[in-house]
Backbone:
């Protein structure tokens, strides 16, 4: 009986993981058209919001209308399972290859930073919603 429960729990976790990956992939595909060329650093005062968009990809908002797509080195095992992250910085600057996304016990080095034109992203989404209503 214990084996049956263990198998059912494993199956449920596998299904949830697959659904989560699909959701992450959809989110990443929505942000990618607005992602600029990689940059070496960005100003960082605080982490207002973050969204996991792939196994090693996260979008962070250091300001209300400013977002960056970060890619971290793997493995970063805790990234998919934690509710909170932090980002290291030096004198309020996050730099690729020097700074990290910290999640649980993992400190995952940032290897790519891409600015997202978040204002354009929001404007296009608003326009698409309005067009769908028509």
Residues:
């Amino acid at each position: 009986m214990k084996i049956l429960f263990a198998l059912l729990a494993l199956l449920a976790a596998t299904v949830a993981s697959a659904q989560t990956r699909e959701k992450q992939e959809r989110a990443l595909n929505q942000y990618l058209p607005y992602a600029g060329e990689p940059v070496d650093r960005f100003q960082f005062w605080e982490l207002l919001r973050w969204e996991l968009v792939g196994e090693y990809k996260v979008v962070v908002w250091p300001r209300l209308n400013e977002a960056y797509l970060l890619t971290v080195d793997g493995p970063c095992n805790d990234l998919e399972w934690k509710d909170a992250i932090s980002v290291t910085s030096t004198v309020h600057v996050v730099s690729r290859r020097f700074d990290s996304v910290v999640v649980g016990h993992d400190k995952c080095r940032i290897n790519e930073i891409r600015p997202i034109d978040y204002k354009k992203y929001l404007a296009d989404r608003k326009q698409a919603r309005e067009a769908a209503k028509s």
Summary: Residues 57 and 71 are 5 Å apart (CA to CA). The chain has one domain: 2-133.
